[in-house]
Every structure is written in structure tokens, then in C-alpha cells.
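User: Fold this, then the next.

Assistant: Folding the first:
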Amino acid sequence: MKWYRKMRDEKKRYKDYLKAKAKLPKEYEQALTALDHYMMNFVGNSDFMGIFEDLLQLFADGAAEGRSINELVGNDPVKFADEIMAEYPEVLWFSKTRKKLKDEFERIEK
């Protein structure tokens, strides 16, 4: 039953994240949602939830300080998201797929 408990806890964590994100000013919520949607295309599992929570905190702090979204993310949101994801290659599906291909070739060559 550990898997069930883990799944339940992850679902609650995600719901809490969505509730907190909804409390942001509209433009901050929209920008964070756009980042979520982009990054979720590359995430291979739920281990990335901590990164989303960190981004939520960045946006919440930025909104509280009156900083613009551009100040938080820069001029290129794709570069911003890609740089974050590059720090966590172990949770990205394409990193896992690349490793699987390399492992398969190593197995073949032996």
C-alpha cells in the first residue's frame, strides 16, 4: 500500500500547488501556468514537483515585491525553463530515453 499512499500524497501536493498558484495575481498565475505546461512536456515523473513549488515561491515573492514577470524570467521564457530543467536531467523523460539507448548499445557491443 505504500504506492497508494505515495500517489495520494503526490495528488494532494499537486492540488495544494494549484490552490497556491491560483492566489497569485492573474498575470503571474498565467505565466507560471505557461511554464508548467512547457516543462511538463519534458518531465518523466512526479519528482519535478519540488521545482514547480520553487517556481511558485519565486513568483509569489516577485509579486509581493512588485517585480515584473520579465524581471523574474528574463526576456526568453524558453531559455529560463530550459536552464531550470538542465539542472535536473534525471527527471526528464528524454534524459532517461537517451540513457536507455546508450545502455542498449553498450549491451549490444559486449
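Now the next one, as you asked:
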Amino acid sequence: MPALWIAHVTVTDEEAYGRYAKLAGPALEKHGGHFIARAARYVQLEGRDHPRNVVAKFPSLEAAETCYHSAEYQAALDHARGASERDLVIVETTE
């Protein structure tokens, strides 16, 4: 079953986070992921507001989790650490 990678992000260092974003896309694509929403308009209805919201779709929950732990994504993530506050969850879809 497909899965969604959902990130809610507050960027605190635009330059460093830009380096993360440049590397993260190719890492996701390598594991079959693609962005379906990325820093687009949104409405916060409940919970803590993060001005950047990202959703990527993967062929499976396992593929998304493997991507997260991959060397390529971890290298990208090194630039986001200290440059953002992030919440990330992977959710299996029903379709």
C-alpha cells in the first residue's frame, strides 16, 4: 500500500535548509517517492502551526522508512538539523 511522508517544518536558517531541500528531493526519488505538496498554501485548523508543510508519496510505508534511514537522506538531513524545527510522520494510505 502507498504511504505519505508528512512533514511540518519551521525553518530557522534559510541557507542551511536550502542545502537540505536540494539534496532531499533526489534522495526521495531514489526510493520511489515524489512530492505532492511542498510549501504550498495551507490553513492551520488545530495544533501547532508550522509555516512549511510537505507531503510526499511513496510506493509503501517500508520504502518511505528506508528512504529516511538511507545514507543519501541522512546526508541531506544533516543540513536541516539546527536549521529547522520539524515533525515528520509516515502514514500508510488506504488506496
